[in-house]
Specification:
heterodimer; A: 358 residues; alpha+beta; Rossmann fold; OB fold (Dihydrolipoamide Acetyltransferase, E2P); 2 domains; six-stranded mixed sheet; five-stranded antiparallel sheet; 19 strands; elongated; B: 292 residues; MetI-like fold; 2 strands; binds adenosine-5'-diphosphate; binds magnesium ion
């Protein structure tokens, strides 16, 4: 990792074991000040462990954690000045909303009047005005989440950590809270790391994604970078709505990668034509049968059987409808070929022969 | 709380008959061994003392009026004071005790809990006799101290108010420890971590997170200690040499030596009322427990 950019948070060669289990293996990354970063990965991949080590709630077995240029390995959690929003919120059940939010400031012995001003300001910020005398069990999930957020930022932390902040909230409110949180963190300018297992959430909210898998980091990059140019087989298969193909060579217009025969196809790589529709590259399309159609609101999703390989494709509502059992032409723009841990992006040679634009 | 109870009753309901079959024996038992003696005591408390040392007609308020003597008021206060001290000391020792058990390695816990319960298997009076043989002037403790040359003549350990307090604490400590232990076991550790992230050191973690969460246990433990301590007459008899009078002794004496049954019964009724009031507090704590 280049030291040219001054990172606010840096992890160097972090390892952490629970007994024989390797929860973190050689974790390295840096986060620039003011960035909103997602730690993304499947459940059990070690995201929470990383977050807890940064917060000081867990001690790494080896490696260095730096915050603002200072090694913090031996600084206890209560001296790190980091805000933490727990997955289960961990609100103090026996305290009112007001006292929950005020707790950090009370510990710092901030004068009462100042605490009152700050809490009032925060209640306003998270739209909980009038609820300050309620107890956590008298709030909805979304309200609790906002109390947890207000409590964490009340002492003005320079770094905010959020563990699955939306996991316990129902789908509809979750969408609102995502945009709310992104806006809020942008406004406050706090360097933030949030954990999620939801790729859509990470891509929508984060400036940068750190993808974890089995205690290791698979890839780091901006959402579009990591989505479009996966560097490992895991990354390629984690993002998007992939169909896996055994024996991709059946689609003869792709180059051959020696030693590999698995490929991933995302729906956006596929174009479907009715037999009578005009098509740009007629010689390189395959014929398939539509097996299933699911309505998705703004589009339909087709499951197409091409020589025994099942491919998912999308079709916009404006296009002429296709029926189950119909024969269609299927054209693949590109595929991800998997070779062990590697992933190779192959373009359809028919496209390449005409023009080089992707 | 009340509505929770109703729900439970509805669920376990089944048929009315099976319900009666289930609680029937309990009701009979309660009637026979609780309600009947209680009614008997209430009746006696309104009778007058007769010349044979029992109770008889006419119906009077003698028993209750007799309680108004300033001496008895003092004894009541003394008892409350002793019980209060006992409860406080039990809390001071019991809390760390419960904490140690709750944080002991998993395989040790059942053993430590067993040690705590072990005294229950031996009659409490016998255990008090044990202490007497240890603490009396020719007892093991004094002999050892003299043999070691630490003291010249035996210390007066036994038959002091301190000895009574010690005996009470010894006898009731498990009642304090168990509810506190339960509440410590239930502690939500993520709240401790949340407080640490907000900058809380050991002191704030204890006062702002651990204490409030274990308050129901502290409350329950206090009441479970305080109530039985009010009626423990034999400890002050045996370890205090009956030098200072407490409610328990007073009641016992009215029935066995002073032979004033109406007064004894009236005192009992007042003690029961105090206890009931405390029990009410206790059920309030139950609903507090739901919240924490
Ligand atoms: N305190 C612990 N003791 C033992 N194993 C743990 C502990 N914490 C986490 N683990 C294990 O480490 C792995 C990673 O956990 P975690 O970091 O919580 O994953 P994630 O947040 O990505 O779901 C999991 O398999 C989990 O069982
Ligand atoms: Mg997690």
């Amino acid at each position: 990792m280049a030291d040219t950019v001054q990172n606010y948070v840096e992890l160097h060669d972090i390892n952490k074991n629970y007994g024989d289990f390797q929860a973190s293996h050689q974790i390295n990354f840096g986060i620039e000040k003011g960035k909103l970063v997602a730690l993304l990965g499947p459940s059990g991949s070690g995201k929470t462990t990383i977050l807890r080590m940064i917060a000081g709630l867990e001690t790494p077995d080896s490696g260095e954690i730096k915050i603002d240029g200072q090694v913090v390995n031996h600084i206890p959690a209560n001296k790190r000045g980091i805000g933490f929003v727990f997955q289960s919120y961990a609100l103090f059940r026996y305290m009112t909303v007001y006292d929950n939010i005020a707790m950090g400031l009370q510990i710092q012995k901030v004068p009462k009047q100042q605490i009152k001003e700050r809490v009032t300001e925060l209640l306003d910020l998270v739209s909980l005005k009038g609820l300050e005398n309620r107890y956590p069990n008298q709030l909805s999930g979304g309200q609790r989440q906002r109390v947890a957020f207000a409590r964490a930022i009340a002492p003005n932390p320079q770094l905010l950590l959020l563990d699955e902040p939306f996991a316990a909230i129902d789908a509809k409110v979750r969408q609102e809270l995502r945009s709310w949180l992104k806006e809020m963190i942008g406004k406050l300018g706090i360097t933030s790391i949030f954990v999620t297992h939801d790729q859509d959430e990470a891509m929508e909210v984060a400036d940068e994604i750190i993808l974890t898998n089995r205690g290791r980091i698979e890839q780091i990059g901006s959402p579009s970078e990591i989505y479009t140019y996966p560097k490992t087989a895991f990354t390629a298969s984690f993002f998007g709505q992939n169909a896996q193909l055994e024996g991709y060579q059946a689609f003869h217009t792709f180059g051959d990668v020696p030693g590999a025969d698995k490929a991933l196809i995302r729906p956006e790589f596929v174009k479907v034509y009715k037999l009578d529709e005009k098509q740009q590259y007629p010689e390189s399309a395959s014929i398939g049968t539509v097996e299933q159609i699911s309505f998705r609101g703004d589009r339909t999703e087709l499951q197409i059987n091409v020589n025994g390989l099942l491919i998912t494709a999308k079709r916009n509502l404006g296009e002429s409808p296709i029926a189950v059992g119909e024969q269609v032409k299927v054209f693949l723009y590109r595929i991800f070929v998997l070779k062990g841990e590697e992933v190779i992006l192959l373009e359809n040679e028919a496209v390449n022969s005409n023009y080089f634009n992707i | 709380m009340g509505h929770l109870f109703k729900e439970k009753k509805k669920r376990s309901g089944g048929s009315r008959l099976s319900c009666i079959a289930m609680i029937g024996p309990v009701v009979v038992w309660m009637l026979l061994f609780l309600l009947v003696p209680l009614l008997y005591v209430i009746c006696i408390s309104f009778l007058s003392k007769n010349s044979y040392g029992g109770a008889g007609l006419p119906v009077t308020l003698q028993g209750y009026l007799g309680m108004l003597q300033s001496e008895y008021g003092r004894i009541f206060l003394q008892s409350l004071w002793l019980s209060g001290k006992t409860t406080l000391i039990c809390l001071l020792f019991g809390y760390p005790f419960a904490w140690i058990i709750a944080h002991a390695p998993k395989k040790w816990k059942p053993f430590l809990l067993l040690l705590l319960m072990l005294p229950f298997w031996i009659n409490s009076m016998i255990r008090i006799y044990g202490w007497i043989t240890l603490l009396r002037s020719q007892g093991v403790v004094n002999q050892m101290l003299m043999a070691a040359g630490l003291i010249q003549k035996p210390l007066d350990i036994l038959y002091t108010d301190g000895a009574v307090l010690f005996g009470m604490v010894y006898d009731l400590l498990p009642f304090t420890v168990l509810p506190i232990y339960t509440s410590i076991e239930k502690l939500d550790h993520s709240l401790v971590e949340a407080a640490q992230d907000l900058g809380a050191g050991k002191w704030h973690v204890f006062t702002r997170v651990i204490l409030p969460q274990t308050m129901p246990g502290i409350f329950a433990g206090s009441i479970q200690t305080f109530i039985p301590s009010l009626g423990l007459f034999y400890i002050s008899d045996m370890m205090g040499g009956a030098k200072t009078m407490y409610i328990g002794n007073l009641i016992k004496n009215q029935f066995l030596s002073a032979r004033n049954w109406p007064l004894g019964a009236a005192l009992s009724i007042v003690l029961i009322l105090i206890t009931l009031m405390l029990m009410r507090l206790y059920t309030k704590v139950g609903s507090l427990d739901d919240m924490v």
